[in-house]
Backbone:
């Protein structure tokens, strides 16, 4: 009799453990963040790997899935808690003269404008896609002003994503968004701008009706002194790195 009860007890224990694992997996399954890779090839550049690692280290309960922009599936993405749109070595300004290139990103533009209503963090190229999706003009610098540079950014309206008045940010872009664009101001609140030589650029904007947080700079900036200009100290680079990681973790907290 004692042996029989022991078997029953062990069986109940095994069922309990399996059930516990299933509950944990189900809980994790519903905490999915998708990163949309906007680079031309499906290979993940260092910046995307860094994004994934920051999220996985800080949020072990969250599943991070990276998909290429060519693989967007609206039904699948709707199951996620939030999206991150990455940078790219492509340029949104080319859409005006290259319809084929614009067509490649049609699904992502629809995703931003109509098909997704949960939080979106749009970075650099993603930032420009967000503006373009709402009919804003994307401009191109005549010469490369910023190349893995670090600047001090003043935040006019600190919020839940960037609750600071000043942060160091990592810049690397040719295309930019003019803060005085009428269509842009109709849809987005301009939170931070930066003058780069003769160019006035939008560095952080938030959509007025949708949870779209859009930044021109790179919060997932490279670690160490990786290809930075020699006049930028390691201390400033580290400050930008810490601020960038905080923006990413704050975004994930918003999603959850």
Residues:
């Amino acid at each position: 009799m004692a042996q029989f009860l022991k078997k029953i007890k062990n069986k109940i224990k095994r069922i309990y453990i399996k059930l516990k694992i299933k509950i944990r997996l189900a809980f994790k399954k519903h905490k999915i963040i998708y990163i949309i890779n906007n680079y031309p090839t499906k290979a993940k550049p260092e910046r995307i790997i860094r994004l994934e690692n920051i999220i996985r280290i800080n949020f072990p309960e969250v599943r991070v899935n990276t998909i290429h922009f060519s693989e967007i599936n609206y039904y699948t993405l709707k199951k996620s808690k939030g999206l991150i749109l990455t940078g790219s070595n492509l340029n949104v300004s080319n859409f005006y003269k290259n319809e084929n290139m614009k067509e490649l990103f049609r699904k992502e533009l629809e995703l931003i404008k109509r098909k997704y209503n949960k939080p979106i963090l749009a970075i650099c190229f993603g930032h420009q896609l967000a503006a373009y999706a709402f009919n804003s003009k994307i401009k191109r610098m005549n010469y490369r002003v910023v190349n893995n540079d670090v600047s001090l950014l003043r935040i006019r309206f600190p919020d839940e994503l960037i609750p600071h008045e000043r942060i160091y940010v990592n810049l690397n872009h040719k295309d930019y968004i003019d803060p005085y664009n009428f269509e842009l101001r109709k849809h987005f609140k301009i939170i931070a701008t930066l003058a780069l030589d003769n160019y006035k650029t939008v560095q952080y904007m938030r959509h007025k009706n949708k949870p779209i947080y859009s930044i021109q700079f790179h919060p997932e900036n490279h670690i160490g002194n990786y290809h930075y200009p020699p006049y930028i100290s390691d201390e400033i680079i580290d400050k930008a790195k810490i601020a960038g990681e905080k923006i990413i973790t704050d975004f994930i907290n918003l999603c959850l």
User: Anything to note?
Assistant: The mean pLDDT is 90. The chain is about 40% helix and 25% strand.
